[in-house]
Amino acid sequence: MKIIEERREIPVWEETDVLVAGAGPAGVSAAITAAREGASVILVEQSGNVGGIATEGLMSHWTGNTEGGFYEEILARSSDTDVNDREMQKVINPEKLKTVLLEMLEEAGVKLLLYTFACEPVMEGDRIKGIIAENKSGRGAILAKIVVDASGDGDIAARAGAPYYTGRETDGKMQPATIMFKVAGVDVERGVFPGGFEDHLAIPAGDIQKLGEEHLPAPAGHVLLYRTTLPGVVTCNMTNCTDIDGTKAEDLTRATIVCRKQMDAIVNFLREYVPGFEKCYLISSASLVGIRETRHFKGEAQITQEDILQARVFEDWVVAKAHFNFDVHNITGSGLDETGAQKKFGQKKGYTIPYGCFVPLKVENLYLAGRNISGTHMAHSNYRVMPICANMGQAVGVAAAMCVKEECSPRSLEAKTVQARMLELGVEP
Protein backbone atom coordinates (compact mmCIF):
# COMPACT_ATOMS: atom_id res chain seq x y z
CA MET A 1 0.00 0.00 0.00
CA LYS A 2 1.22 3.49 -0.84
CA ILE A 3 -0.07 6.98 -0.17
CA ILE A 4 0.44 9.61 -2.85
CA GLU A 5 1.63 12.83 -1.26
CA GLU A 6 -0.06 15.87 -2.71
CA ARG A 7 2.21 18.05 -4.82
CA ARG A 8 2.86 21.41 -3.20
CA GLU A 9 4.94 24.49 -3.56
CA ILE A 10 7.45 25.22 -0.81
CA PRO A 11 9.15 28.54 -0.09
CA VAL A 12 12.83 29.25 -0.58
CA TRP A 13 13.93 30.15 2.93
CA GLU A 14 17.45 31.32 2.14
CA GLU A 15 20.10 31.60 -0.54
CA THR A 16 23.75 31.34 0.44
CA ASP A 17 27.21 30.69 -0.95
CA VAL A 18 27.91 27.55 1.08
CA LEU A 19 25.43 25.26 2.80
CA VAL A 20 26.74 22.69 5.31
CA ALA A 21 24.53 19.79 6.38
CA GLY A 22 25.55 18.37 9.76
CA ALA A 23 27.21 20.16 12.69
CA GLY A 24 29.61 17.53 13.96
CA PRO A 25 33.35 18.30 14.09
CA ALA A 26 33.63 18.13 10.29
CA GLY A 27 30.58 20.30 9.60
CA VAL A 28 31.36 22.94 12.21
CA SER A 29 34.94 23.20 10.96
CA ALA A 30 33.83 23.45 7.33
CA ALA A 31 31.26 26.15 8.11
CA ILE A 32 33.60 28.29 10.22
CA THR A 33 36.47 28.01 7.74
CA ALA A 34 34.34 28.81 4.68
CA ALA A 35 32.93 31.87 6.48
CA ARG A 36 36.38 33.03 7.51
CA GLU A 37 37.41 32.71 3.86
CA GLY A 38 34.71 35.18 2.89
CA ALA A 39 31.73 33.01 1.92
CA SER A 40 28.22 33.40 3.28
CA VAL A 41 27.45 30.15 5.10
CA ILE A 42 24.40 28.38 6.52
CA LEU A 43 24.87 25.37 8.80
CA VAL A 44 21.91 23.00 9.25
CA GLU A 45 21.75 20.56 12.17
CA GLN A 46 18.93 18.20 13.14
CA SER A 47 19.68 18.14 16.88
CA GLY A 48 19.55 20.96 19.40
CA ASN A 49 23.31 21.39 19.78
CA VAL A 50 26.40 21.58 17.62
CA GLY A 51 29.35 19.22 18.02
CA GLY A 52 27.80 15.89 17.06
CA ILE A 53 29.41 12.92 18.78
CA ALA A 54 31.82 15.26 20.60
CA THR A 55 28.91 16.84 22.50
CA GLU A 56 25.54 15.14 21.96
CA GLY A 57 27.39 11.82 21.73
CA LEU A 58 29.20 12.46 25.05
CA MET A 59 32.56 11.37 23.60
CA SER A 60 35.30 11.07 26.23
CA HIS A 61 38.24 12.62 24.38
CA TRP A 62 39.71 13.68 21.06
CA THR A 63 41.11 10.37 19.83
CA GLY A 64 44.49 9.68 18.26
CA ASN A 65 47.67 11.64 17.68
CA THR A 66 46.60 14.02 14.92
CA GLU A 67 48.46 17.34 14.89
CA GLY A 68 47.86 20.74 13.36
CA GLY A 69 44.95 22.28 11.51
CA PHE A 70 41.65 23.51 12.84
CA TYR A 71 41.68 20.74 15.43
CA GLU A 72 44.37 22.62 17.37
CA GLU A 73 42.17 25.72 17.61
CA ILE A 74 39.27 23.67 18.96
CA LEU A 75 41.57 22.12 21.57
CA ALA A 76 43.04 25.47 22.59
CA ARG A 77 39.62 27.08 23.08
CA SER A 78 37.72 24.19 24.66
CA SER A 79 40.26 22.45 26.86
CA ASP A 80 39.40 22.38 30.55
CA THR A 81 43.01 22.47 31.68
CA ASP A 82 45.84 25.00 31.53
CA VAL A 83 48.39 22.28 32.24
CA ASN A 84 50.77 21.59 29.37
CA ASP A 85 49.63 17.97 29.15
CA ARG A 86 48.50 16.95 25.66
CA GLU A 87 46.47 13.97 26.86
CA MET A 88 44.58 16.04 29.44
CA GLN A 89 43.95 18.77 26.86
CA LYS A 90 42.25 16.15 24.68
CA VAL A 91 39.70 15.28 27.39
CA ILE A 92 36.31 16.69 26.38
CA ASN A 93 34.02 18.70 28.62
CA PRO A 94 30.95 18.44 26.37
CA GLU A 95 29.05 21.30 28.01
CA LYS A 96 31.94 23.69 27.55
CA LEU A 97 32.56 22.47 24.00
CA LYS A 98 28.94 23.15 22.99
CA THR A 99 29.28 26.79 23.97
CA VAL A 100 32.77 27.24 22.51
CA LEU A 101 31.69 25.93 19.12
CA LEU A 102 28.63 28.20 19.13
CA GLU A 103 30.88 31.17 19.91
CA MET A 104 33.24 30.24 17.06
CA LEU A 105 30.33 29.95 14.63
CA GLU A 106 28.95 33.34 15.70
CA GLU A 107 32.37 35.01 15.45
CA ALA A 108 32.76 33.70 11.89
CA GLY A 109 29.30 34.93 10.88
CA VAL A 110 27.81 31.50 10.16
CA LYS A 111 24.02 31.36 10.13
CA LEU A 112 22.97 28.34 12.20
CA LEU A 113 19.68 26.44 11.96
CA LEU A 114 19.27 23.88 14.75
CA TYR A 115 16.33 21.47 15.06
CA THR A 116 16.30 21.35 11.27
CA PHE A 117 16.42 18.16 9.23
CA ALA A 118 18.08 18.16 5.80
CA CYS A 119 15.56 16.05 3.89
CA GLU A 120 16.35 16.07 0.18
CA PRO A 121 18.74 17.64 -2.31
CA VAL A 122 17.50 20.22 -4.77
CA MET A 123 18.82 19.00 -8.11
CA GLU A 124 19.15 20.46 -11.59
CA GLY A 125 20.36 17.55 -13.69
CA ASP A 126 23.50 16.25 -11.98
CA ARG A 127 24.10 19.55 -10.16
CA ILE A 128 23.04 20.07 -6.55
CA LYS A 129 21.47 23.49 -6.02
CA GLY A 130 20.67 23.24 -2.30
CA ILE A 131 18.52 21.20 0.03
CA ILE A 132 14.93 20.84 1.16
CA ALA A 133 14.77 21.13 4.94
CA GLU A 134 12.04 20.67 7.49
CA ASN A 135 11.58 21.94 11.04
CA LYS A 136 8.86 23.26 13.35
CA SER A 137 8.44 26.25 11.03
CA GLY A 138 7.50 23.95 8.16
CA ARG A 139 9.20 22.79 4.99
CA GLY A 140 11.39 24.96 2.78
CA ALA A 141 14.39 25.10 0.48
CA ILE A 142 17.83 26.53 1.11
CA LEU A 143 19.71 27.21 -2.11
CA ALA A 144 23.49 27.32 -2.29
CA LYS A 145 26.34 27.54 -4.76
CA ILE A 146 28.21 24.76 -2.92
CA VAL A 147 26.78 22.09 -0.61
CA VAL A 148 28.88 20.24 1.96
CA ASP A 149 27.51 16.93 3.22
CA ALA A 150 28.95 16.52 6.71
CA SER A 151 26.04 14.41 7.96
CA GLY A 152 28.21 11.40 8.77
CA ASP A 153 26.02 9.01 6.82
CA GLY A 154 26.03 11.16 3.67
CA ASP A 155 22.23 11.30 3.44
CA ILE A 156 22.14 14.25 1.05
CA ALA A 157 24.92 12.87 -1.16
CA ALA A 158 23.17 9.50 -1.39
CA ARG A 159 19.82 11.05 -2.32
CA ALA A 160 21.57 13.23 -4.88
CA GLY A 161 22.79 10.09 -6.65
CA ALA A 162 26.44 9.97 -5.57
CA PRO A 163 27.63 6.33 -5.73
CA TYR A 164 28.62 4.56 -2.53
CA TYR A 165 28.85 1.23 -0.77
CA THR A 166 28.19 0.42 2.89
CA GLY A 167 30.45 -1.27 5.43
CA ARG A 168 33.32 -3.54 4.57
CA GLU A 169 33.81 -4.48 0.96
CA THR A 170 33.44 -8.24 1.44
CA ASP A 171 30.00 -8.42 3.02
CA GLY A 172 28.68 -4.91 3.79
CA LYS A 173 28.88 -5.47 7.55
CA MET A 174 29.41 -2.33 9.64
CA GLN A 175 31.03 -1.58 12.97
CA PRO A 176 28.74 -1.75 16.03
CA ALA A 177 26.94 1.16 17.69
CA THR A 178 27.45 2.59 21.18
CA ILE A 179 25.79 4.99 23.61
CA MET A 180 28.41 6.67 25.77
CA PHE A 181 27.59 7.42 29.40
CA LYS A 182 29.14 8.89 32.54
CA VAL A 183 29.28 7.63 36.11
CA ALA A 184 30.01 9.69 39.21
CA GLY A 185 31.09 8.72 42.73
CA VAL A 186 34.37 7.20 41.54
CA ASP A 187 37.48 7.20 43.72
CA VAL A 188 39.76 8.11 40.84
CA GLU A 189 42.89 7.77 42.97
CA ARG A 190 42.17 4.06 43.30
CA GLY A 191 40.46 3.68 39.95
CA VAL A 192 41.80 1.87 36.92
CA PHE A 193 41.28 3.20 33.40
CA PRO A 194 41.69 0.74 30.53
CA GLY A 195 41.72 2.92 27.43
CA GLY A 196 41.89 0.23 24.75
CA PHE A 197 40.64 -3.28 24.08
CA GLU A 198 44.16 -4.63 24.58
CA ASP A 199 44.54 -3.10 28.04
CA HIS A 200 44.31 -6.34 30.04
CA LEU A 201 44.78 -4.72 33.43
CA ALA A 202 45.14 -6.98 36.46
CA ILE A 203 42.63 -6.18 39.22
CA PRO A 204 41.95 -8.25 42.37
CA ALA A 205 39.21 -10.29 40.65
CA GLY A 206 41.38 -11.05 37.59
CA ASP A 207 41.97 -9.69 34.06
CA ILE A 208 39.59 -6.75 33.63
CA GLN A 209 38.80 -7.51 29.99
CA LYS A 210 38.19 -11.22 30.64
CA LEU A 211 35.91 -10.31 33.54
CA GLY A 212 33.98 -8.03 31.20
CA GLU A 213 33.60 -10.80 28.64
CA GLU A 214 32.34 -13.19 31.34
CA HIS A 215 29.97 -10.94 33.26
CA LEU A 216 28.60 -8.26 30.93
CA PRO A 217 25.53 -8.91 28.75
CA ALA A 218 26.50 -9.72 25.16
CA PRO A 219 27.26 -8.12 22.80
CA ALA A 220 28.75 -5.82 25.46
CA GLY A 221 31.85 -7.28 27.07
CA HIS A 222 34.80 -4.90 26.82
CA VAL A 223 35.84 -2.42 29.50
CA LEU A 224 36.82 1.09 28.38
CA LEU A 225 36.97 3.79 31.06
CA TYR A 226 38.19 7.38 30.69
CA ARG A 227 38.95 10.13 33.17
CA THR A 228 37.12 13.44 32.86
CA THR A 229 38.05 16.89 34.14
CA LEU A 230 35.28 16.67 36.77
CA PRO A 231 35.97 15.20 40.22
CA GLY A 232 34.80 11.63 40.62
CA VAL A 233 33.29 11.46 37.11
CA VAL A 234 34.33 8.85 34.52
CA THR A 235 33.19 8.31 30.92
CA CYS A 236 32.27 4.75 29.92
CA ASN A 237 32.54 3.46 26.36
CA MET A 238 31.07 0.04 27.08
CA THR A 239 27.59 -0.38 25.60
CA ASN A 240 27.52 -2.28 22.34
CA CYS A 241 24.97 -3.18 19.66
CA THR A 242 25.96 -5.20 16.59
CA ASP A 243 24.30 -5.70 13.20
CA ILE A 244 23.21 -2.07 12.99
CA ASP A 245 22.68 -0.02 9.84
CA GLY A 246 22.86 3.59 10.98
CA THR A 247 20.99 4.78 7.89
CA LYS A 248 17.80 3.08 9.10
CA ALA A 249 15.60 4.63 11.81
CA GLU A 250 14.45 1.21 13.02
CA ASP A 251 18.07 0.13 13.57
CA LEU A 252 18.91 3.35 15.41
CA THR A 253 15.89 2.72 17.62
CA ARG A 254 17.00 -0.85 18.33
CA ALA A 255 20.55 0.30 19.11
CA THR A 256 19.19 2.86 21.56
CA ILE A 257 17.08 0.26 23.37
CA VAL A 258 19.81 -2.40 23.45
CA CYS A 259 22.52 -0.02 24.66
CA ARG A 260 20.39 1.65 27.30
CA LYS A 261 19.34 -1.73 28.73
CA GLN A 262 23.03 -2.62 29.15
CA MET A 263 23.85 0.41 31.32
CA ASP A 264 22.56 -0.86 34.66
CA ALA A 265 24.42 -4.14 34.21
CA ILE A 266 27.61 -2.25 33.37
CA VAL A 267 27.29 -0.03 36.46
CA ASN A 268 26.71 -3.11 38.64
CA PHE A 269 29.76 -4.77 37.09
CA LEU A 270 31.92 -1.73 37.82
CA ARG A 271 30.71 -1.61 41.42
CA GLU A 272 31.43 -5.30 41.99
CA TYR A 273 34.74 -5.79 40.21
CA VAL A 274 36.60 -2.54 39.46
CA PRO A 275 38.62 -0.80 42.20
CA GLY A 276 37.50 2.76 42.89
CA PHE A 277 34.08 2.21 41.32
CA GLU A 278 32.41 0.58 44.35
CA LYS A 279 30.04 3.52 44.86
CA CYS A 280 29.67 4.74 41.27
CA TYR A 281 26.30 5.66 39.79
CA LEU A 282 24.98 6.71 36.39
CA ILE A 283 24.64 10.50 35.96
CA SER A 284 24.28 11.12 32.22
CA SER A 285 24.12 9.36 28.87
CA ALA A 286 24.47 10.47 25.28
CA SER A 287 21.40 11.70 23.44
CA LEU A 288 22.99 10.58 20.16
CA VAL A 289 23.78 6.95 19.33
CA GLY A 290 27.42 6.58 18.31
CA ILE A 291 27.41 5.22 14.75
CA ARG A 292 30.90 4.37 13.56
CA GLU A 293 30.34 3.34 9.96
CA THR A 294 27.73 3.48 7.23
CA ARG A 295 28.27 4.77 3.69
CA HIS A 296 31.62 5.01 1.94
CA PHE A 297 31.25 7.28 -1.10
CA LYS A 298 33.17 6.85 -4.31
CA GLY A 299 35.22 9.93 -5.09
CA GLU A 300 37.74 11.27 -7.53
CA ALA A 301 40.35 9.63 -5.28
CA GLN A 302 40.21 6.94 -2.60
CA ILE A 303 42.41 6.50 0.46
CA THR A 304 43.35 2.94 1.36
CA GLN A 305 44.82 0.93 4.21
CA GLU A 306 48.13 0.78 2.34
CA ASP A 307 48.25 4.57 1.96
CA ILE A 308 47.98 4.92 5.74
CA LEU A 309 50.51 2.21 6.52
CA GLN A 310 52.98 3.92 4.17
CA ALA A 311 52.32 7.33 5.78
CA ARG A 312 51.78 8.50 2.22
CA VAL A 313 52.12 12.16 1.36
CA PHE A 314 49.88 12.62 -1.66
CA GLU A 315 50.87 15.17 -4.26
CA ASP A 316 47.38 16.69 -3.96
CA TRP A 317 47.05 16.44 -0.14
CA VAL A 318 44.77 18.89 1.66
CA VAL A 319 44.66 17.20 5.10
CA ALA A 320 47.98 16.51 6.83
CA LYS A 321 49.42 14.90 9.98
CA ALA A 322 46.41 12.64 10.49
CA HIS A 323 47.27 9.81 12.88
CA PHE A 324 45.35 7.02 14.56
CA ASN A 325 45.20 3.21 14.34
CA PHE A 326 42.92 0.65 12.70
CA ASP A 327 40.17 0.95 15.29
CA VAL A 328 37.81 -1.72 13.97
CA HIS A 329 35.34 -2.64 16.70
CA ASN A 330 34.29 -6.28 16.62
CA ILE A 331 31.58 -6.55 13.98
CA THR A 332 29.99 -9.60 15.61
CA GLY A 333 30.63 -9.01 19.33
CA SER A 334 32.67 -7.05 21.86
CA GLY A 335 36.28 -5.90 21.77
CA LEU A 336 38.60 -5.39 18.81
CA ASP A 337 37.81 -7.01 15.48
CA GLU A 338 40.35 -9.52 14.18
CA THR A 339 41.21 -7.06 11.40
CA GLY A 340 41.89 -4.19 13.82
CA ALA A 341 45.22 -3.02 15.23
CA GLN A 342 45.66 -0.75 18.23
CA LYS A 343 48.86 -1.44 20.20
CA LYS A 344 50.10 -3.48 17.25
CA PHE A 345 49.59 -0.57 14.86
CA GLY A 346 53.20 0.28 14.04
CA GLN A 347 52.91 3.33 11.77
CA LYS A 348 54.06 6.23 13.92
CA LYS A 349 54.02 8.96 11.27
CA GLY A 350 51.09 11.08 10.23
CA TYR A 351 49.51 10.56 6.81
CA THR A 352 47.73 12.87 4.38
CA ILE A 353 44.37 12.77 2.62
CA PRO A 354 44.10 13.85 -1.04
CA TYR A 355 41.63 16.40 -2.35
CA GLY A 356 39.76 13.91 -4.55
CA CYS A 357 38.49 11.97 -1.52
CA PHE A 358 36.15 14.88 -0.76
CA VAL A 359 34.70 15.15 -4.29
CA PRO A 360 32.04 12.48 -4.97
CA LEU A 361 31.49 11.05 -8.41
CA LYS A 362 28.48 11.99 -10.55
CA VAL A 363 27.20 14.96 -8.53
CA GLU A 364 28.44 18.50 -9.14
CA ASN A 365 28.88 21.30 -6.59
CA LEU A 366 28.96 18.83 -3.70
CA TYR A 367 31.67 18.12 -1.12
CA LEU A 368 31.93 15.34 1.42
CA ALA A 369 33.43 15.94 4.87
CA GLY A 370 33.84 13.51 7.76
CA ARG A 371 33.57 9.74 7.91
CA ASN A 372 31.59 9.63 4.64
CA ILE A 373 34.55 10.51 2.38
CA SER A 374 36.00 8.19 -0.27
CA GLY A 375 38.04 5.52 1.47
CA THR A 376 38.11 1.78 2.11
CA HIS A 377 36.60 0.10 5.15
CA MET A 378 40.01 -0.35 6.78
CA ALA A 379 41.20 3.18 6.00
CA HIS A 380 37.91 4.50 7.37
CA SER A 381 38.57 2.84 10.73
CA ASN A 382 41.50 5.24 11.03
CA TYR A 383 40.29 8.53 9.52
CA ARG A 384 36.78 8.41 11.02
CA VAL A 385 37.90 9.88 14.37
CA MET A 386 36.97 13.45 15.30
CA PRO A 387 40.36 15.26 15.14
CA ILE A 388 40.89 14.07 11.58
CA CYS A 389 37.28 14.90 10.66
CA ALA A 390 37.72 18.44 12.04
CA ASN A 391 40.72 18.97 9.78
CA MET A 392 38.80 17.53 6.84
CA GLY A 393 36.20 20.19 7.48
CA GLN A 394 38.83 22.91 7.41
CA ALA A 395 40.13 21.76 4.01
CA VAL A 396 36.63 21.48 2.56
CA GLY A 397 35.68 24.90 3.94
CA VAL A 398 38.68 26.46 2.21
CA ALA A 399 37.83 24.64 -1.04
CA ALA A 400 34.14 25.56 -0.93
CA ALA A 401 34.91 29.25 -0.49
CA MET A 402 37.37 29.06 -3.39
CA CYS A 403 34.72 27.50 -5.64
CA VAL A 404 32.39 30.40 -4.84
CA LYS A 405 35.05 33.02 -5.55
CA GLU A 406 36.26 31.39 -8.76
CA GLU A 407 32.76 30.36 -9.88
CA CYS A 408 33.88 26.81 -10.52
CA SER A 409 32.84 23.33 -9.42
CA PRO A 410 34.73 21.22 -6.87
CA ARG A 411 35.70 18.83 -9.65
CA SER A 412 37.38 21.56 -11.67
CA LEU A 413 39.05 23.33 -8.76
CA GLU A 414 42.81 22.78 -8.71
CA ALA A 415 43.87 20.84 -5.61
CA LYS A 416 47.17 22.72 -5.58
CA THR A 417 45.24 25.96 -5.03
CA VAL A 418 43.58 24.50 -1.93
CA GLN A 419 46.90 23.08 -0.78
CA ALA A 420 48.60 26.46 -1.13
CA ARG A 421 45.98 28.07 1.11
CA MET A 422 46.30 25.26 3.65
CA LEU A 423 50.03 25.93 3.80
CA GLU A 424 49.31 29.64 4.43
CA LEU A 425 47.07 28.54 7.31
CA GLY A 426 49.95 26.57 8.82
CA VAL A 427 48.92 23.10 7.66
CA GLU A 428 51.80 21.06 6.23
CA PRO A 429 52.74 17.36 6.07
Structural description of this entry:
With 429 residues, the chain is of the alpha/beta class. 28% of the residues lie in helices and 20% in strands. The strands form five sheets. Strands 1, 2, 3, 4, 5, 6 and 17 form a seven-stranded mixed beta sheet that branches.
Brief summary of the model shown:
Helix 1 (25-36) packs parallel to helix 10 (386-406) and helix 10 crosses helix 11. The mean pLDDT is 97. This protein has helices at residues 25-36, 70-78, 86-89, 94-108, 155-160, 208-215, 249-273, 305-309, 377-383, 386-406, 415-424, and strands spanning 12-21, 41-44, 111-113, 117-124, 127-135, 138-149, 164-166, 181-184, 202-203, 206-207, 225-227, 234-236, 281-285, 295-297, 317-322, 351-354, 366-368.
Query: Strand portion, in percent?
Result: 15-25%
Shape: globular
Average pLDDT figure: 97
Question: Helicity, in percent?
Answer: 25-40%
Largest sheet: 7 strands, mixed
N- to C-terminal distance: 56 Å
Class from secondary-structure proportions: alpha/beta
Name the poorly predicted regions. none
Q: Which series of helices and strands comes N to C?
A: EHEHHHEEEEHEEEEHEEHEEHEEEHHH
Whole-number radius of gyration?
A: 21 Å
What is the count of DSSP helices, taking H or I runs of 4+ residues?
Answer: 11
* Total strands: 17
